[in-house]
Amino acid sequence: MRYAAIDIGSNAVRLLIADIIENKGSVSFKKNTLIRVPLRLGDDAFLDHHLSERKTAELLKTMQAFSNLMDVYKVTDYLAFATSAMREAKNGGEVVNRIKESANLNIEIIEGQKEAGIIYASHIEQNIDKSKNYLYIDVGGGSTELSLFSAGELWASKSFNIGTIRMLDNQDTEETWTEMKDFIRENTKQFKLISGIGTGGNINKLYKLSEEKDKAPLSFAKLKSLYVYLSSFSLKDRINVLGLNQDRADVIIPACEVYMTVMKCANIKNIYVPTAGLVDGIIQTLIEKNFNNPG
Question: Which pTM does this prediction carry?
Answer without folding.
Answer: 0.93
